[in-house]
Amino acid sequence: MRTVPTENCDVVMTFPDTTDDHTLLWLLNHVRLGIPELIMQIRHHRHTRIYAFFVTATYENLLRGAEEIGLRKPVKAEFGGGTRVFSCEEDYIYQNIENELNFFTSQERQSIIRYWMENLRAKQGETLHNIHFLEGQPIIPELAARGVIQQVFPVHEQRILSRLMKSWVQAVCERQPLDEICEYFGVKIAMYFSWLGFYTSSLVYPAVFGMMLWFFTESDQTSRDLSCVVFALFNVVWATLFLEGWKRRGAELAYKWGTLDTPAEFIEEPRPQFRGVKRISPVTNCEEFYYPPWKRLLFQSCVSLPICVSCLCFVFVVMLACFELQEFVLSIRELPRLVRFFPKILLAIIVSSCDEVYRKIAYWLNDMENYRLQSAYEKHLIIKIVLFQFVNSYLSLFYIGFYLKDMERLKEMLATLLVIRQFLQNVKEVAQPHLYQKVQQGEINSRSILLFVRYALRRLVQKYALPQRPARTPGDPLEPGFGNRKKCLNGGCGVPEEEEEGISEEDELEEESIMDCGLKLKRVSFLEKEKRVEECLLTQQDDDIGFLQEGSPTLMEKGSDPASVFQLGDDEEDEKEISGELQDIEEQETAVKLRPHRKRKKKLSVEQELRKEGDEEDDESARKQKRESWMDPPEDHNPTKLTQAEVESCMKKYEDTFQDYQEMFVQFGYVVLFSSAFPLAAVCALVNNIIEIRSDAFKLCSGLQRPFGRRVDGIGQWQVRS
């Protein structure tokens, strides 16, 4: 399938396939009346079968929005230079104000549009189905929290993304283009990558010093103890200088990107997921949700604390079990040295798996504690995650170092944890988004997996369990094991012109062979599918195109009510016939048993095709004269094309930089706390971080949805935790 760029769209809002027309009309009408600055387009995605709103805004409205959110823009040199909060009254003093295409970056446009969408507020007594809004409550975040809106995400800009792939992902030995990252992904993500780059460059010093100690330390115990003490003192000094150096570097970047003196919001909006009982606020005298603090404290005492203790006890039990397995393996002297690392590798894999489980538990506990503000929610989430990660990652090392007091074993355990965990994390970060996208697009499903497993099992059974079949003589027209069934033409399964009438089903081997033929036929006939679909679409009259045809824009009479958008379908029966033909074609190609005497569809002649195209163009021009489109992109009837927005809607959402900081937090602890026992720990961390920068960049540029830009002045709570 070919991806078609999505034009005139900055933000996409998608809805589940079960969304009714009333919900779409209700939200469309509220956006049209409440946010007149936005231009809304309705689409129906062909592949995922969902509705979507494509959102953008005009340049003049974006200027007013930049003033509302306090966006800082660079000032011309003749007016003093530097940056300044944008003002429409003095717009002439800003650089590139005359250039509508380059004054705002795509990330700034999307941030302004998101600000408007989050400030669409409900009036008193407004309801949608069973959702009752409070007066002044943001509508779109509430609908997203309730699942009415599936997702809201900004679209990628392919031109800039291609440039970032070359200058950032593929340029391994060059400096990161932090300014371009900030312009495209926002300050928060750029701040993370700048911190990661600063941390990686700082690791050069302990890596070099550790290699010197590793190669030049004598083998006697006194020299080892002395080098351990010296390296521990070096780590203390290095960690202090690194943290203070980053404070200075972070302040420089915040000033450069215009977020150093960003004022905090005076009133922080409640989280959309916050739930409680309605009451009149004693401060504002307005209706609000209230959750008693004693309920949160009760949940923390009776649920959160026992679960946390149980998880920590489980980690301890698993660690002891792995150590017992290690003792058993060491007791067998005949085993090779590599096999003796198996218990350590097993423990590293279990620790990595527990990280994901504990992360989900921490999120669930935090959600159940029901914090009102996002800042409080993130603070308590970091506390839980850090507690789980600290015990899960460092417990075995502390046990070996301070209870068993085995430095050689500590060295091996630390090396195993560093290498295995970092390898698994990098593979998961790169592979998981792409697998998620394949599943969402339907390229990987349960049926394809089942067919693959059946095929693999059948081949194994034929190879090891069943006797070998006698070789067929060249003149034998029958295949062994098929009874009286003839061999497929063109070598077996290459799109046969004729198929025999009788299909014998005498035994299981015959059915398996037929399934094999079906699988091969499916693989070689994909190109034929595209031709057949095009033939079906050519027989469709333009007047029979129903409302909201998949992938096509929605036309609306000028000045008409939005409700008329759902009444533009002309004739649903013809549309059902076409969809039925497409479904029949797909069923024919995915069938695992060959059908006898399959009839082929006659192709239209070249003259008929040209005549059809001319009629469609005439009908299209006549219809465009009667109606005025409020969406610019033209209709697309090619089912093999996917719009960029539809492809990105199948991608995995980039949650936050939280998990990325979490990985580096654990690694930083390994280097600072335990590298005195294993001086090459900093070398392993340095190599991993060089790969980590590019893998995270590749993940952002190719496998995930584009996140909204966030304006921050630092790395937040992680500066304190470090």
From TrEMBL:
Domain spans labelled Anoctamin transmembrane: 181-719
Keyword Transmembrane: yes
Region of interest (Disordered), residue spans: 548-574, 604-641
Residue stretches of biased makeup (Basic and acidic residues): 604-614, 621-639
Subcellular location(s) of the protein: Membrane
A molecular-function term among this protein's GO annotations: chloride channel activity
Top-level taxon of origin: Eukaryota
Transmembrane segments: 192-216, 228-246, 297-320, 341-361, 381-404, 668-691
Keyword Membrane set for record: yes
GO cellular component: plasma membrane
Main location: membrane
Membrane topology: Multi-pass membrane protein
Alphabetic keyword roster: Membrane, Transmembrane, Transmembrane helix
Pfam family, one: Anoctamin
InterPro entries: Anoctamin, Anoctamin_TM
Assigned protein family: Belongs to the anoctamin family.
Name the record gives this protein: Anoctamin
